[in-house]
Amino acid sequence: MLQYNPVIHPNPKGKRLKFEPFLRKEYGLGLDPDRPICQFFIPQKGPSSCPNGVNCPHKHVPQMYSNKIVCKHWLRGLCKKNDHCEFLHEYNLRKMPECLFYSKNGFCTQTPECLYLHIDPQLKIAECMSYNRGFCPDGPECTKRHVRKVMCPLYLTGFCPKGPECEFGHPKFDNITPRMRIRAEKPVEKPDEKPEQEATNDKKRPASEMRSPPSKRSRH
Fold first, then answer.
1. CB atoms within 10 A of CB 116
2. What is the pLDDT of residues 106-120, one digit of tens each?
3. Are 71 and 89 in contact (CB under 8 A)?
4. 158: which residues sit within 8 A by CB, 6+ positions away?
5. 54 and 114 together in one domain
6. Is residue 135 a part of any domain in this protein?
7. Does some domain include residue 193?
8. Where would I find the C3H1-type domain in this sequence (predicted)?
């Protein structure tokens, strides 16, 4: 019967090579790619924001990757980039990638268990700013999206407390003509109307002065 020989079959547990800390620090070698994200790490401040610094056992997500979507290869366990991947390696339902099957066919066979985002194709079309202001000259042939909303009565009076979260429409008057900028205290006078001061003076004049003077006779 063969006997166990520690020289031929050494036990690697508890033994570390001298260069392992360097590989762990610089390249993340040996770290679990599915380890949780550090709650103390702030991307704007760097590793100094974490008490453990570069030796933290949890994941430090750089700022350039903080607003990315979840890696679709990581979801299937096929990503080989680990911490150097430009996408997120975390289950964040708000940053999941778009479901390609739903975007192409309009339905998904995995609903409601599908983890990917189901985005309505109509929502990808930009809103028509002319229609939002009140009128679109292209009408139904417009390539942009026409969103029909009831005008917000609070916004039309001057202020809406809900702001952009209001379910009613807030028209944006971007193209304001000079005619629309005329103030109420300076009304436009019509040519056939007399000024207010002349009308007041006419009322104060006697009736004899109000009569028109006799016409001059033509000389022969």
1. 19
2. 888 887 778 788 877
3. yes
4. none
5. no
6. yes
7. no
8. 32-63, 65-92, 93-121, 147-173
